């Protein structure tokens, strides 16, 4: 079942044709500024599973020197996807229509979280990225 999402003004829409995985809340200072929020939530997908289904010409990409970036609608400002060295690697869970079939598994870059935000759930927290060896606990079903 394809996962669809879109921006606030409705002009830009995307589809992910395969499953989402590895969702996390990112508290880094870049994500906080980019989203104007305490944290942002992303999920990954298999390479090739992402397509823009409308409004691709309105999509702008802001990339940092470190190679990370964000795709947003130039009309309404919604952040739809994350990029890594120019490739779209994540979508923002907040722009998915309906149930994405996945829930966040961790908090990352907690070391730079907003001072005014308390994390009140039991998900694992990492100062930066989780170690390569870390496997999120899989929910049954
Ligand atoms: Zn828009
Ligand atoms: Zn971040």
Describe the structure.
By secondary structure, the chain is mostly beta strands. It has a single domain (3-112), classed as Metal Binding Protein, Guanine Nucleotide Exchange Factor, Chain A, CATH 2.170.150.70. It has one helix and ten strands, in the order E-E-E-H-E-E-E-E-E-E-E. The chain has one helix spanning 29-35; strands at 3-6, 13-16, 20-26, 40-45, 50-54, 59-63, 68-73, 79-84, 87-92, 106-108.
**Order of helix and strand elements from N to C terminus:** EEEHEEEEEEE
What is the beta-strand fraction?
Answer: 35-45%
Provide the CATH top-level class: Mainly Beta
Helix content: under 10%
Name the shape in a single word.
globular
CATH architectural category = Beta Complex
Side-by-side strand order of the widest sheet: 6-7-8-9-4-3-10
- For the terminal residues, how far apart are their CA atoms? 16 Å
Largest sheet: 7 strands, mixed
Mean pLDDT: 94
Low-confidence runs: none
Number of helical regions: 1
User: What's the alpha carbon Rg, rounded to whole Å?
Assistant: 15 Å
By oligomeric state, this entry counts as single chain
Please name the CATH topology. Answer: Metal Binding Protein, Guanine Nucleotide Exchange Factor, Chain A
* Ligands, ions, cofactors: zinc ion
* Number of self-contained structural domains: 1
């Amino acid at each position: 079942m394809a996962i669809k999402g879109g921006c606030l003004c409705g002009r830009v829409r995307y589809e992910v044709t395969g499953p989402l995985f590895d969702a996390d809340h990112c508290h880094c200072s870049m994500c906080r500024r980019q989203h104007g929020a305490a944290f942002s939530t992303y999920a990954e997908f298999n390479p090739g599973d992402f397509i823009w289904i409308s409004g691709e010409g309105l999509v702008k990409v802001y990339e940092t020197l470190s190679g990370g970036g964000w795709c947003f609608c130039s009309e309404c400002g919604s952040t739809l996807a994350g990029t890594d060295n120019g490739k779209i690697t994540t979508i923002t869970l907040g722009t998915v229509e309906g149930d994405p079939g996945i829930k966040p598994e961790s908090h990352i870059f907690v070391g730079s979280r907003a001072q005014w935000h308390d994390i009140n759930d039991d998900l694992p927290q990492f100062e930066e990225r989780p170690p390569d060896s870390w496997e999120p606990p899989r929910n049954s079903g």
